Amino acid sequence: MTELLPAVRHVNPLFVLLTASVGCALTVLDTNVVAIVLPTIAREFRASFADVEWVISTYVLCFASLLLPAGAIADRFGRRRVYLIGIASFAIASLLCGLSPSAPALYLSRALQGISAAFLLAPALAIIGHGFHDAQERNRAWAIWGSIMGLTMVLAPIIGGLIASTLGWRWAFYINVPICAFLAGAVIFLIEESRDVAARKLDPAGIVFFAVSMFGLTWGLINGQAAGWTSWSALGGFIGGGLSACAFIAVEQAQARPMLDLRLFSSPRFLGAVWAMFAYAAAAQVMASMLPLFLQNGLGQSALQAGFDMLPFALAMLVFPHIGRLLERRLSSASILTIGLLFVAVGNAITAWGAYSVAWHVIMGGMIVLGGGGGLLNGETQKAIMSAVSRERSGMASGISTTSRFSGILLGFAMLSGVLATMVRSWVRTFGCGVCQRPSTFADAIVAGDLPGALIGLSSSARITGLEQARQAFSHGFSWALLTASVFAFISSVMVSTLMRTGRQD
User: pLDDT-based confidence at 432, cuts 50/70/90?
Assistant: First the structure.
């Protein structure tokens, strides 16, 4: 049951939709803009690759861990109020990110930004869901929301490139402050307060164990590539994450109204749809963060060039959801999900071939196929998850959908980055630096994207050779990361097809 507080004025529902959608788009804009400026950050701070990974991972980790409780808090204490708190804290965290004097300070500020993003996105989605009751109006609202999010994905890399090449990387964060100020003003004047008086209670134990399990797995993946996959720091992360995941399952099963109702996963259709969302995020959406690293560190492009060269991927992501809606007339949801994952597998494989051979036309073709598969999955995954549960469970299903998406980005980025780093170091050990005296230091700088740092101490003639070898090593490592994503997407397509076909029979 939802309680409405008196509205200050009657406003056009379209303005409400746009105000909530801008908050959602801000979380995507920040993630994709930061991906473009990461190599610049690595060079300025002389950061290790683990530091670079944590800049992305701390944000997504806190974001993914708190989405479910943020939604419950917004329902209980007021969606408008929590939305304003999220906007204000996001602005403060962005300012702290821009002022960071070191890599550790930056990724600690990014953790606060990720927490804020959860309290930005969850109430914004709830405001949209609450504001449109008629089925046709709600479908139109979500279509507009999807278009705004897709357009944000197209523009974000270009905005990131422009910021890095003109204002400096710190403005990738500073720019959020005036946007948040404008957004807060719009919320105050346009959004009416609402809350759910029957909202479920908070689940502190579930929140903690879920967050610790994600942190442990991420810690293991990041430290595995840095200290060795059998090191105590990596194994400790994996063991701690696994034990926390078991504790989370036990805590949720013991509650009458859990934060995450595990009984939903007894449905093969629901499980298949959730896995499709996770696989899409881990193998396709994650490339919005990884491809800019390759374009700059492997191909030697500037941040601005990389931003524009992300367009084939981003435009395909924008266009193919519309093609998916046309396919719905002839194909089942399971078929579209399977085809989308196969596209992602093929696109990653083609891009891997292009990265290995350093052939731009092949890379661009692979990015288009990869983005096309991601576009098919982007809208269909959410729809498949929501259609696999009864209407009264739609709130929890939506939370599971969003959490699985960002968990996929988090673990996919950590896993693929680990493959990239391991294969770069293997290439340097096998083929040597040729011109440098400390191959391990050379490899560490390549992995971090600090190519100028890798060439310190070399003569001008040796720098040319060293730079070519550094880019070749990075491209080699990235091709293996793409192949890993391709295999994962292919295996996931088989799993999703099997699970959802079993669900139809049931």
Answer: low
